Amino acid sequence: MNDGINLFNDTLTEAVAKNKRFLLKRPAYIPAFARIAAHIKKANKMRATLAHKENLVVPPVLIISVTNECNLACTGCYACHQDRDKSAEMNTAQIERVVDEAKALGVSIVMIAGGEPLLKPGILKLPQAHPELLFVMFTNGLLLHNETAAEVGKLKNLIPIMSLEGGEILTDARRGVGIYEAVTDTMCRLDKNGWLFGVSVTLTSVNYDDVVRSDYLKTMQDLGCRAAFLIEYVPCGAQDLSLCLTDEQKAHLRAVEKNLYKDHDMLVVSLPGNEDPYSGCLASGRGFLHISSSGALEACPFAPYSDTSVKNMPLKEALRSKLIKEVRKNHDQLKESRGGCALKENAEWVMSLQRDDR
Questions:
Q1: Which of 53, 87, 103, 144 could staple 149 via S-S, CB 3.0–4.6 A?
Q2: CA distance 200 to 229
Q3: Please, what sign has the CA dihedral across residues 140, 145, 147, 150?
Q4: What distance lies between CA 59 and its chain's CA centroid?
Q5: What are 130's strand-pairing partners?
Q6: Segment 168-207, tens digit of pLDDT
Q7: How many CB atoms lie within 10 A of CB 317?
Q8: How many CB atoms lie within 10 A of CB 41?
Q9: What is the Cα 347 distance to its own chain's centre?
């Protein structure tokens, strides 16, 4: 397990700290990323020390869903399908406390998800308070109006990642008429100001060819994107299984994903990507962990099962979750699945761990 974790740490360092191509035409960000790179190296040592001395596994990447609220209702949205309790959401102060603790334990990248994160009051205080951490915020892009965009642009350790479904026809079909034009207009505006941003595309059997077997990523790069996340679709239920990548598409993605990264002057990240070199699933702290909007500590955003909450417990204590440990112990059994998430594919097993711990 340690070999897989070490390899992931090295890969992360290579992608963020050593690869500077994605900062081309963004010179204002170079000092910030030098600070981030220094912290990544320091954080790697901090996590290794905790693992050795306290047998505590701390992930380099922490994903926090800060709200379930959203100003869109996209067809097939997995987050909407989960129907989480919005009344139980952590407030901004609680989220700030968790991020403080995460940095102290050696987390180096915080991914902010939702819902729509920009609907959470004060959420931009997080990157402002921690300039040595890299924050990646997944947003639909519709709230990046002039004032908010200017605030985001000042935060050189924050990369807003705007969601599309491919081109205009595919995006508007799933997200609403006019969404593609609105988001790409925002991209042009951010690019004109020299601000760092990226794009996220959920890969389905329907849009795969249009996104991967085309010049789509080159188009996004020309619009100013400096990062692209390609996320394999996770079905809401049996009715959506046809949207999962086919075996042929998965095989093709595994064959080309490294070249996608090499062939563009931006970070191209495929999720979950080929996890075989890391000896299986990177969830449950081997590479990342997820904290839900209500504070539940979960192995993965697509496996909403938990026996521990950080809402009223220090993160360090929550990381000793029995469920998380058990999932991590069986990481080598959690490999390729139909819908991009091996934990989702083995939901009954994960749920049984949740029941056992209670």
A1: 144
A2: 5
A3: positive
A4: 13
A5: none
A6: 999 999 999 999 999 999 999 999 999 999 999 999 999 9
A7: 12
A8: 12
A9: 20
